[in-house]
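Please decode residue identities from the backbone states below.
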């Protein structure tokens, strides 16, 4: 008889759904993977089948990831790095195993550069608090774009207020791309930081990361990339990009909420002071002062989101199973289909016509307020988002208070877009006649 506690706990755990089977041969078929996502089969609003088109907000999770969380809590829940007992050893091994998966996912040279955070927002705030606040001063400039999510804008406004540094912005052209000529003009020796969104959550624009980073390097600025919308759908290579920091969120790439990653170059992270103080991030503590733990623990104060990190590791496995090139290609194809179909509706205006774009498609329907539209299509079981998309300055640039947004991912089908189009046509009639 096996008296090992972990084996007993594992025996109690429900059987896990492993998604490791190879995909069928031939062109990618989203139907082959939809069974991995039980939630896609739920019915909503009086038995309507769900069309989930709000993936830029958060993606759905395959059963293998839900099971990774369940398995962790039922088989090896313990705090990491602290205790010597068996469960703690198992938990630490899985937690650090997830870090290594993320390292490989980003093609980072060293696991010491992989810091677990709560998400993109926290990663950016970490850099703002631990680097910018201590290194910038009056006269320095922080260069951003006009298409930033508030999470890559508000932290820099706070830094600017407290340090006297100045914010500058790369304008957005009418097609939803960045004005690269203006970018060149705004760069100067005063530019200490360039922080930009890799893919816009509103316009879907894929920004020219390499060109932006090279420009920043030419004036000696540091670079932070907001990869919240790019980590889910394309291969990222932080060495090829040569950015100093890159932040993303697990929940937008099939992983759990409450976990994210800040990648940083080891020498840059080494030179930074900690962000939060507490347990786990120290080496030696006296009543008066402390020394810091080695990377990455220096930036991971307190008990981390252990199950979240393990779930994120499982998400990385799942993305690799599908292949990031496959995901990117399919998402681009479905976004193009969405734009084509929506453009066919009279009175629909699409925001963002960049040649290189991803799965977020924002639009307005003449005569229908975005919130009314989102509520109307929801009655047909279709989930889209309406509002300012946490990008109020970009809304102002587009000249609208709010937009509607359909955002697709690798498990969506063309027929779900067809349902959205049908529902929009009905909504137009409804709001014209009020019936
Ligand atoms: N940056 C971008 C480009 C984003 O799209 C988001 C979230 C964030 C940062 C913040 O990520 P978090 O995980 O820290 O919240 N974007 C959206 C969205 O478009 N709809 O809901 C959340």
């Amino acid at each position: 008889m096996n008296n090992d506690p972990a084996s007993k706990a594992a025996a109690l755990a429900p059987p896990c759904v492993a998604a490791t089977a190879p995909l069928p041969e031939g062109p990618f078929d989203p139907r082959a993977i939809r069974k991995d996502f039980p939630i896609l089969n739920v019915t909503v609003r009086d038995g309507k089948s769900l069309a989930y088109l709000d993936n830029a907000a958060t993606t759905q999770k395959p059963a293998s990831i839900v099971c990774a969380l369940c398995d962790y809590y039922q088989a090896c829940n313990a705090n990491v790095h602290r205790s010597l007992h068996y469960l703690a050893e198992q938990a630490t091994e899985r937690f650090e195993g997830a870090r290594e998966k993320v390292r490989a996912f980003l093609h980072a040279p060293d696991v010491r550069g992989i810091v677990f955070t709560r998400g993109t927002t926290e990663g950016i705030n970490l850099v703002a608090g631990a680097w910018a606040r201590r290194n910038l001063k009056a006269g320095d400039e922080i260069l951003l774009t006009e298409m930033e999510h508030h999470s890559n804008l508000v932290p820099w406004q706070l830094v600017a207020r407290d340090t006297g540094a100045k914010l500058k912005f790369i304008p957005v052209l009418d097609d939803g791309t960045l004005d690269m000529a203006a970018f060149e003009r705004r760069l100067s020796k005063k530019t200490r930081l360039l922080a930009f969104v890799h893919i816009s959550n509103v316009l879907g624009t894929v920004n020219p990361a390499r060109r932006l980073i090279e420009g920043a390097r030419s004036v000696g600025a540091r670079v932070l990339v907001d990869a919240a919308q790019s980590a889910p759908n394309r291969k990222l290579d932080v060495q090829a990009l040569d950015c100093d920091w890159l932040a993303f969120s697990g929940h937008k790439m099939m992983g759990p909420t409450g976990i994210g990653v800040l990648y940083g170059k080891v020498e840059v992270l080494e030179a930074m002071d900690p962000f939060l103080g507490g347990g786990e991030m120290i080496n030696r503590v006296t009543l008066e002062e402390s020394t810091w733990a080695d990377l990455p623990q220096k930036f991971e104060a307190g008990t981390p989101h252990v199950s979240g990190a393990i779930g994120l590791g499982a998400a990385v496995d799942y993305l690799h199973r599908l292949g990031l090139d496959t995901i990117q290609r399919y998402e681009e194809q479905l976004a193009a289909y969405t734009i084509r179909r929506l453009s066919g509706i009279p009175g629909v205006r699409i925001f963002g016509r960049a040649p290189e774009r991803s799965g977020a498609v924002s639009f307005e329907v003449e005569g229908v307020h975005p919130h009314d539209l989102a509520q109307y299509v929801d009655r047909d079981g279709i989930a889209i988002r309406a509002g300012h998309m946490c990008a109020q300055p970009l809304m102002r640039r587009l000249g609208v208070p709010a937009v509607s947004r359909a955002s697709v991912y690798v498990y969506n089908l063309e027929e779900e877009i067809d349902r959205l189009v049908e529902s929009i046509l009905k909504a137009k009639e409804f709001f014209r006649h009020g019936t």
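Observation: The longest helix spans residues 86-106.
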